[in-house]
Amino acid sequence: MINSLRAALLFTAAISGCDMSGMTEPSVPTTCSRIAEKCQLPDGPLGVCIETRCEADEKPPCFACTPQH
Questions:
Q1: Spacing of C-alpha 4 from chain mean position
Q2: What are phi and psi for residue 61, nearest 5 degrees?
Q3: What is the model's pLDDT at position 49?
Q4: pLDDT digits 0-9 by tens, 15-47
Q5: Are 30 and 65 in contact (CB under 8 A)?
Q6: Which of 7-16, 46-55, 57-66 is least confident?
Q7: How far is CA 56 from CA 30, 31, 50, 59, 60, in A?
Q8: DSSP labels for 16-28?
Q9: Backbone phi, then psi, for 63, in 5-degree steps?
């Protein structure tokens, strides 16, 4: 039902000349810049950013993407 409705809306928008660019989902970053933001883990699932220990060449604060579960 929902897929049919979505398809109908997309079809209607396409034939009416609507700008569809705002309907795409935002990309999830692979690097972290703050605590608790969503991030993309290398193996596919979404993760969450946590503060972590910095490497010798990094300036704090440092963050890492970790699995949510």
A1: 25
A2: -80, 150
A3: 97
A4: 666 565 665 666 888 899 999 999 999 888 999
A5: yes
A6: 7-16
A7: 21, 18, 18, 8, 10
A8: HT---GGGSPPPP
A9: -130, 155
